[in-house]
Structures are given as C-alpha cells and as structure tokens.
Specification:
- The chain is α+β, with helices and mostly antiparallel strands.
- It has a single domain, classed as q2cbj1_9rhob like domain (Jelly Rolls, Sandwich).
- The chain is about 25% helix and about 20% strand.
- It has 8 helices and 12 strands.
C-alpha cells in the first residue's frame, strides 16, 4: 500500500526561519522539467525580440516574467503537495502567486554582488515574520562551472540600513557572507523555497551552457510584491484549473496574453556601484 509523504510544518518552518531556504529533491519527473525548459527557451527567444521583454540582471544574465499558462507543465508544478504545504505553513491559508518568470545566466555571466531581492518589510525586521516566498526550479542539472546560486544562510533577518532601498549590503559586510555561503547545485526535478530576503548572489558561468531557472513568487496577505509584477491569465486558463488553485493568483484576467511589462528592475545588479539599492 502506497503511503503519501508527510511534509511536516515544523520542518518547513525550521528551514525557512533558520537557514532561509529549503528544498525537495526528485519532486518532479525529468520529462516534466524538460517540457518546462523548452517553454523557457521559446519564451526567451520571444522576449529578446520584445522591447522590455527581458531585463538584465548583470552581464549575460536575464530575467523574464511570463503568464503562468505559457509555461508548459506549470499546473502540475504548483499542484505538488510540497509546494502547497510550504505555502500553507509559512504564509497561511490565503497565499497567492504573484510572479512567474525565469532567470537565465548564459556563458559569460559574471559574479553578482551580494543582495536581497527587495527591502525587508517591517513585519520581518521587527515582527520576525516571513510573508513571502520565492520558489526555484532548475531546468538543467547544475554544475560548478555553470555558476550556481550562492546563499548566506540565516541572513533573511539582517538589517541593511546603509543603503536607501535596503537591498545591497555594504561590501564591509561581505566577509560574513563569504564565510557562510553555500552553493546550490540544483538538479532537474528538484524544487527549492526561500525567503527572497536571504542574502544571495549568482556566480560566474564559465561553462558552455545556459542555466535557466523557473521562479514562482508567492505572497501572504500582508505582502505587497504583487504591485511590482503584472501577472496575467486568460479566463479559459483560470476555468481549467483545479478548483483548489483558482483563487491562488493575484493578477488580471485578459482576453489575450501580451508581453509582461516588468516593473521590478534591479539597477544594482546592472551597476553594482550604485548605492541607491
């Protein structure tokens, strides 16, 4: 008799509130991930021919936001019990997906400065609560040469008061992150969840291969990240979703999907010397 896995709330909370990142290996069949990868490649080709379609995140590194229904395999991805269990445990019962996109470091991508994806809200700095999550699914088997994602565990609680927008710690802080850093060599079929406030960076891609990663942003009721994104979907897509997922999106219903107008430009990744972030 098959026994479905139990994803303990205490384990989820300990990971997100401790290291700031958790992961599940072999969550998806590789064939599903290959389907997802082909979607990403097709959508990137479209985005690079669309004004504002692909935003730079540093040399040879791009970020593209898309409509969920344009990612083949997206519904099975968010239907996974681990994805939903993590959202329920950390964000409560009223979580919503606010962002779908992908990051691609190509060969030649360089070392990013240590950063977080947005300023820490008062709820986190003073209330010690995490109210949003970022899920990542790699589309390839990551090697050291591809420039893996590095994270400094436990730094989601750090104050970054030295820059007005609270995203880029002063280089004087970097030795601490260097000492704590962990490289994530994610493999196809795995999924991770993290606080986007945990200090992290992309590393140089010295391989001959791109390293595409799907990104899903999820907010709890008190988070405001939806204001930085333009999630859109058709009524047909929404109606075809499993009933338990129809209320899980914060976006607009459109007759026809158009290129996403991206609002979350991170100039500090383009011009690292910019102290405004």
């Amino acid at each position: 008799m098959r026994t479905d896995p139990v994803y303990e709330e205490s384990d989820i909370m300990a990971g997100i509130y401790g290291d700031g990142i958790i992961a599940l290996a072999d969550a998806y069949d590789v064939t599903l991930i290959e389907t997802m990868r082909r979607s990403i490649e097709r959508l990137f080709d479209e985005a690079r021919h669309t004004e504002g379609g692909a935003l730079p995140r540093g040399p040879q590194r791009w970020y593209v936001e898309v409509a969920p229904e344009r990612i083949d395999g997206f519904v099975p991805i968010i239907s996974h019990r681990w994805f939903q269990a993590v959202c329920d445990a950390v964000l409560g019962p009223d979580w919503k997906i606010v962002e779908v996109g992908f990051d691609i470091p190509f060969p030649g991508a360089t070392l990013q400065p240590w950063h977080r994806d947005f300023a820490a809200p008062k709820m986190t700095l003073e209330g010690r609560q995490i109210n949003s999550l970022a899920f990542n699914l790699t589309a390839v088997d990551t090697t050291v040469e591809m420039g893996p994602f590095e994270i400094a565990p436990g730094t989601q609680w750090d104050r970054v008061d030295e820059c007005p927008r609270g995203m880029f710690p002063d280089p004087l802080r970097w030795p601490r992150y260097e000492a704590r850093k962990v490289a994530k060599l994610a493999q196809r079929g795995s999924i991770s969840a993290r606080s986007a406030l945990t200090i992290h960076r992309g590393t140089p891609n010295v391989s001959r291969h791109a390293r595409p990663v799907l990104v899903i942003g999820v907010d709890g009721p008190s988070a405001t990240n939806a204001a930085h994104h333009d999630l859109q979907m058709t009524a047909e897509f929404l109606a075809a979703l499993p009933e338990n997922l129809r209320s899980r999106f914060s976006g607009r219903i459109v007759e026809e999907i158009t290129a996403v107008r991206q609002n979350h430009v991170i100039e500090g990744l383009i011009e690292p010397a910019n102290s405004g972030y």
